[in-house]
C-alpha cells in the first residue's frame, strides 16, 4: 500500500479496512514507515499490527510495557468492542462512526470507551517511532511556530498537558480550525470532530509507563517527546486535515 498517514486511512476509503482485519493481531517486526494493508472481515474490528517490533522503543519504553500495553490493553479494547456491538445498531459502523454516535449517550458509554480506546491506541502507536523526536518537517514546523512561537514551546506545552492530566487520559497536538493547539482528554475521550483533527498523541494512562517509570510520569513524557515522537506522522496528518 502506498504510504499514507493514519489520519488519511481513518478518514479515507480504507478506514473500515484499517480496523477490520481477518485473523487478529500480527506484530510487524519491520519499520513504521509503511503501514500494512488489510483485508476486511465482516463486521468485526481487529487489532491493527503494531507498526514496529515490541522492543523498538527501548530504552524509553520497554518491550515488556509494549507487550502488555498492546497485547493486553489495546487488544482488550478491541475484543470488548466487538462483543459490545454485536447485534446492535453499531455493528456495521466504522470506528469513527461508533465514536460519534455513542459519544454523550449514557446507555452507550462502554461502547464509546472501547471504540475510542481502540482508535486512540492505534493513533498512539503511530505517533511514536524508534529514533523519533528531533525537528518537525518544514510545513508542520511552520504551523507549530505560528501557534506556539517555536517547536520547543510546543513540546513544553505538550509535556505540561501530559504531566498535568489528572488521572488517566491523553495529551494531543491537534489542528483546531486552522490553528494548532495542545489539548488533553480524560479517560478514553478523543478530540475528534468536524473541526478538530488529532496530529499526534501521548498516552498518559498508568499502563503506558508504570512498569518502566512507576510514578515518574514526567520522565516517561520527556523521553517520549525527546526521543520517540514521530513528527512525520503528525506532518502527514496535518497535510490530510
Ligand atoms: Fe494505553
List cofactors, ions and other ligands: fe (ii) ion
Let me know the number of strands.
3
Strand order of the largest sheet: 2-1-3
Overall form: globular
- The proportion of strand residues reads 5-15%
Low-confidence region ranges? 1-42
Query: Helix and strand succession?
Result: HHHHHHHEEEHHH
Largest sheet: 3 strands, antiparallel
- Overall structural class, as computed from helix and strand content, comes to mainly alpha
Average pLDDT metric: 86
Helix share, percent: 40-55%
Distance between the termini: 20 Å
Number of helices: 10
User: Which value, in Å, is the CA radius of gyration?
Assistant: 17 Å
Tell me about this structure.
- This protein is mainly alpha-helical and 241 residues long.
- The protein contains 10 helices and 3 strands.
- A 3-stranded antiparallel β-sheet has the order 2-1-3.
- The longest helix is centred in the N-terminal third of the chain and has 23 residues, at 63-85.
- The relative contact order is 0.15.
- Mean pLDDT is 86; it is low at 1-42.
- It binds fe (ii) ion.
Task: List the keywords.
mainly alpha, three-stranded antiparallel beta sheet, 3 strands, binds fe (ii) ion, disordered N terminus, 241 residues
Topology:
Layout: H1 6-11, H2 15-18, H3 63-85, H4 95-102, H5 109-127, H6 138-148, H7 151-164, E1 169-176, E2 179-186, E3 196-203, H8 210-213, H9 217-228, H10 231-240
Antiparallel strand pairs: 1-2, 1-3
Helix pairs in contact: 3-5, 4-5, 6-7, 7-9
Bound molecules: fe (ii) ion.
How do you describe this structure in short?
With 241 residues, the protein is mainly alpha-helical. It has helices at residues 6-11, 15-18, 63-85, 95-102, 109-127, 138-148, 151-164, 210-213, 217-228, 231-240, and strands at residues 169-176, 179-186, 196-203. The structure holds fe (ii) ion.
